[in-house]
Design a protein that fits this description.
The structure holds two protein chains of two kinds. Chain A is mainly α. In chain A, 80% of the residues lie in helices and 0% in strands. Chain A has ten helices and no strands. Chain A has helices spanning 4-15, 17-35, 41-70, 72-78, 83-113, 120-144, 148-165, 177-183, 188-195, 206-239. Chain A is globular and about 55 Å long. Chain B is α/β, with parallel strands linked by helices. Chain B is 30% helix and 25% strand. In chain B, the strands form three sheets. Chain B has a six-stranded mixed β-sheet with strand order 5-6-7-3-8-9, with helices on both faces. Chain B has a four-stranded antiparallel β-sheet with strand order 11-12-10-13, covered by helices on one side. A three-stranded antiparallel β-sheet of chain B has the order 2-1-4. In chain B, a hairpin with an 8-residue loop joins strand 1 and strand 2. In chain B, helix 2 packs parallel to helix 4. Chain B is globular and about 70 Å long. The two termini of chain B are 43 Å apart. Residues 305-309 of chain B have low confidence and may be disordered. Classes of the chains: A mainly alpha, B alpha/beta. Chains A and B meet through helix 1, helix 4 and helix 10 of A and helix 2 of B.
Chain lengths: 240, 309
């Protein structure tokens, strides 16, 4: 089957121009405020990476649960869309859309942190991989939530835990258990790439980001039928 | 093709919406579930659609895909959601393609149905701007577009004008002739008499017999429903009585069930005159499925006057 859901998501995005503009403007203004505040690089990078991860996690999970509540998820899956294709195409379209929406904010962040040219490529790679991983995380979060409020809570908790594991809030001493975790965490590449925008630091976490980005779709694909049944049940529970 | 026996289902901890349902529907047949609100019609349709599994009983359904790879089921509920930002055309084409049609077939099928259901004028407007009736037409169109072998329609005539009802009747007869099994839930007896091969009565979560509409109505003999518009409601209590007729609603219009049909009118008019009532208009309605339902089930369908005690 051709990627119907991918095409649908883009068609819908074209009709939501106001939302697109808001999703460009709000992160841009937040990043601009921090970039202009002369905050220490470590702090500024932490703020940026939190924003760049929370935005797609919420953006993936909340609309999915809202669609489940309206019965649209059940309709899609009963209407012949394979669950795996539904969730993965939706996440892929959202990740690319997020990339486009966040690019101006990321450019300002990179410039605000020092604007080193050599950091640009790792930063863009880290961004794309982080957005893809965060969108897939959002789908897994939506699968366990029963309402939009729960989804927002779980998305915040999941994103912040993964950010913490990625060493965004605290860097473990080399060789420590925390440092080992950080090496395997999904958002370290993005964090390191942001830090490297201001100084000649090597960017770590490439393999971890790649592995997460490659493995998480498999997890979603494997769980897709169960996630689909769960989300389809949301509308049923609401109709009771 | 579709077969259910002893099927029961309940939503959460609420009393079971469906307690004991028996149903068989084969390809080429239009089966109607007739019952009042809360009879369990929608729950049975949803079970047949595979939206959930029965708590008890046995249910046999064909596989979800036809051998050609098309979705075997078409379902239109009363609250079918749509992609409101997209047009009706875009919605219908998307769901037709998701159901297994290629682009050309999907567009041809959707174009044809938009014309037949008189939805062409609104086809390219966002669904968010649609009236209730247009949304209902779109839901029906989406259920029909991929030519499913099992069509499940919940209250399909709600919100439809008479032209759309006629178009739907023709479409369902056509699909049935092509071999589809059609099961629809409704309390629109006039529509059912025109489209259903068989009617299954439902009340309080149970199927309660049924039969072919013509045979069910014929079994009522000459019984008629007489509606009399009065200048003022009669004040006598109990309401007037006579041989062969019973007042089932003493308001205005006064509703009378007459076992011998219009022949009771002279006696009825005399009794009303004696009760001081002034008759302005008389409508004699021939026996229909509502009456057959009342006789067989002992309950009254919505929109039909309650039986007086």
């Amino acid at each position: 089957m051709s990627p119907l859901v991918w095409a649908l998501e883009w068609r819908l995005a074209r009709r939501r121009r106001r939302l697109f503009l808001l999703n460009v403007t709000v992160p841009l203004l937040l990043v601009l405020a921090v970039a202009l505040a002369s905050a220490p690089v470590v702090h500024a990078a932490a703020v940026f990476v939190v924003l760049f991860v929370i935005h797609p996690t919420f953006g993936s999970a909340v609309p999915l649960v809202r669609d489940a509540e309206t019965g649209m998820v059940a309709r899609m899956l009963r209407g012949g869309v394979p669950p795996g294709a539904y969730f993965l195409e939706r996440a892929a379209a959202a990740a690319l859309l997020d990339t486009l929406q966040l690019l101006p904010a990321v450019a300002v962040a990179w410039w605000g942190l020092g604007g080193r040219g050599s950091a640009l490529l790792p930063l863009l790679a880290g961004l794309v991989l982080a957005l893809w991983t965060a969108n897939l995380t959002g789908i897994l979060v939506a699968a366990v939530a029963r309402s939009v409020a729960e989804t927002a809570l779980f998305a915040a908790v999941a994103a912040l835990l993964l950010l913490h594991a990625s060493g965004v809030f605290r860097t473990g001493p080399p060789g420590s258990v925390a440092a080992s975790f950080e090496g395997a965490a999904p958002f370290r590449l993005l964090h390191e790439a942001l830090l490297a925008s201001g100084s000649a630091l090597p960017t770590a976490g490439v393999w971890a980001a790649l592995i997460w980005a490659a493995a998480l779709p498999g997890v979603v694909l494997l769980l897709a039928p169960r996630i689909g049944v769960g989300l389809a049940g949301v509308a049923l529970r609401r109709s009771m | 093709m579709l077969w259910a026996t002893g099927v029961a289902y309940g939503y959460g901890s609420a009393p079971e919406a469906l307690q004991e349902a028996e149903l068989a529907a084969v390809g080429g047949e239009v089966v109607a579930l007739l019952g009042a609100n809360g009879a369990g019609k929608t729950t049975l349709l949803r079970l047949l659609d595979g939206q959930f599994e029965p708590r008890r009983g046995q249910l046999r359904r064909p596989p979800s895909r036809t051998p050609e790879g098309r979705l075997a089921y078409g379902f239109a509920g009363e609250d079918t959601p749509h992609l409101d930002l997209l047009s009706g055309w875009e919605n219908a084409r998307f769901f037709a393609r998701a159901a297994g049609l290629d682009r050309a077939s999907a567009e041809a099928a959707v174009g044809d149905l938009l014309a037949r259901l008189a939805l062409l004028a609104e086809a390219h407007r966002p669904v968010a701007e649609y009236s209730f009736g247009a949304r209902r037409k779109l839901a029906l169109l989406e259920a029909l577009a991929h030519r499913p072998s099992v069509l499940l329609l919940d209250e399909p005539t709600v919100g439809l004008d008479s032209a759309a009802r006629a178009a739907l009747t023709a479409l369902l007869r056509e699909r049935s002739r092509e071999g589809a099994a059609v099961v629809l839930a409704s309390h629109d007896t006039a529509f059912l008499e025109g489209v259903a091969d068989r009617v299954v009565f439902m009340a309080r979560g149970r199927t309660r017999g049924g039969g072919r509409p013509r045979e069910l109505v014929a079994a009522l003999g000459g019984a008629a429903r007489i509606e009399m518009t009065l200048a003022a409601p009669i004040s006598s209590s109990p309401p007037p009585r006579g041989t062969g007729w019973t007042v089932v609603d003493g308001g205005s219009p006064l509703v009378v069930r007459a076992d011998a049909g219009a022949a009771v009118l002279p006696d009825l008019c005399r009794a009303l005159a004696a009760a001081g009532a002034e008759v302005r208009q008389v409508v004699v309605r021939p026996p229909d499925l509502s009456e057959a339902f009342r006789r067989n089930v002992g309950e009254t369908l919505p929109g039909v006057a309650e039986t007086a005690s």
